Structures are given as C-alpha cells and as structure tokens.
Amino acid sequence: MQDDFLREIIPQIFLTDSPSGYDFKVNEVIINILTKLGYEYEILNKNTIVVKVLGHDNSKVVATSAHADTLGLMVRSINSDGTLNVTNVGGPLAPTLDGEYCKIQTRFDGQYTGTILSKSPSIHVYPDSKSMPRDFDHLVVRIDEVVKNKEDVLKLGINNGDYVFIDPKTTITKSGFLKSRFIDDKASVCLLLALLKELKEKGEKPHYMTYFYFVHQEEVGHGASALAKEISEFVTVDMGCVGLDLAGNEYAVSIAAKDSGGPYSYELTSKLIKLAKDNKINYVVDIFPFYGSDVGAAWRAGVDCQGALIGPGVQASHGMERTHLDAIKETMRLMYLYLTK
Ligand SMILES: [Zn+2]
Asked: Which of 66, 81, 147, 208 has the most other CB atoms within 10 Å of its CB?
C-alpha cells in the first residue's frame, strides 16, 4: 500500500527540521503534498493543519491526527569559549546526542552547523571524558565557525532562544528498515498522507465526515488541544512502544489500551482490535508505561470524544529510532479499515 509514495515523502518530511514550536517549514512541505494530492486544508492559529474529508454520512464527525513536531534543543546561553549551552525541547534521550551533528537556526534566517559534544570531549586530555554525565548540564554545541569567545558568537547572529536542530540521519535500508530520529511521529504524518492518497486513488469516501489533523507541540504536551468540539471519535496515530515485556515490535501496529494518562476508550479500542483481528493485520495490544498522546491533550482541553491510539512499533524511542516499513503499512491498513469499513 503506497510503498513508492512513502519512500518518496519520508525524506521530504524527515529532513525538514521541526522541533516543537518551529512548525512553518514542515507545514510548507505537508501543504505542498496535500495540494498535489488535490486536498483543501485549513490552518488553525497554532499552525495545526486540518483536512476535512466528506464521508457517506456527514452527521457524525471522526478525527485522526499525527504530530509533525519533533524533539530538539534551544540555545540557553553562550559560553566564554564560544560554545553553546542548550536546553531541551521535548524529551530527547540526552546521552544519545553526544557526537551528533546539528544546525543552529538564528532567529532571522542565519544557519550554522555544529556538533553536540560533552564538556570533556577528548580522551587524550580529560580524565573524565568517559565518565562525564551526558545530560544537558554537560553537553554543549561546538559551532563550525571561527569563534573564540562569546562576542564572536553574537556577531554571527546567534543568541539565546535560537533553535538547535538535531540531525535526524534518515535512512531507508534495502531490507525495509527506516532508521532515523523522529520516526515518532513523522512516520505517522507520512502514513496519513499516504492514506489520503489511497482514498483519492480509489475514489473511496470514509463512512463519516473525517478530520485529519497534522499537529505541532505534541512533544511538549498540548498538540491536539484545539480539536473541533463536534468530533465524536478520535484515533490518534503515534509511535508504538517496543522493549521489555511489551508486545510491540518494529513490524506490527500497536494498539494502546492505556498509557500514563490512563486507559483509552474501551469501545473504540475494542473496535480497532476487532478490525485488526478480522482482517489479519499484524497487530499487538499494549500498555505504554511512560507515554502521553494527543488524545490526552484533546481530553484535557475539554473535547468530549472517544479516544484511541494506534501506531507503528518504534525501537529506541527518543534516541536513534528504528521501525520497518511493514509496521507503517500495517498501521495505515488499520486506519483505512477504521475509516471505510
Ligand atoms: Zn509521539
């Protein structure tokens, strides 16, 4: 299902930096794809994109979403040696950032490259190079410019509050693995776009009026807080957890029964599990121990809807993530069935 299209749009979406709050560039990419597919869209005040697809019965409204924002960093302060202290945007797994390439985006359109390093980055010099904690008090950005002090950095136009984009290193292997940062949740953005393409090509309408949301600021807790009040069911698409005793894996769609915010809606979740089972979709049911989603954001914002979560199993989340295209396609199939069957 839409294999070529996925392989075409994954690099476009993944290689456009979009840490929470820096949303307009990835919106341009999404809008460009939607326009080519022949969809109209609206943009809400918080830059959420909404595509409203007419169904056979438009008296009922259902919704789905994926979040286009990712984890990132921001300049906290400039050090006297010309390196940058950073603060996290969302929750990147800090030790995995040591040695990663990055870009510093100045507020008014300058961009510089750099590397995230520990404060004791050389084994030949620092006795604590191996043992220094890899956290945001001990990681700095080394800028690829001749900067010897704070003034040199300021002259480049870099200042506190500038975004630092982490290189996602997006790769699709011959064996069908997608390895990249921010598969959470850009894989789901791509699969919803592929689903919209599938609907168009098949000339098929969903059962009900369906709102597709492409949201931002999920990673900081309030992504889908502006859903329309008329929505009665909301199935968000976000990564499935993999590891320990969980059933999730990189080939299956995970259906979440519960996360840190409590259980998802019983009837809607059961409906998705039955659909997956009856249609021989490779699925698992799981609980996500340290996890919140856009269903929680919508509920806390007062949207009175049934809520459920499905998504491709993603290994090493918030670090160097990996999934398989099979998990993305199984998730797409389940969402397609939910909307049309
Ligand atoms: Zn996510």
From this structure: 66
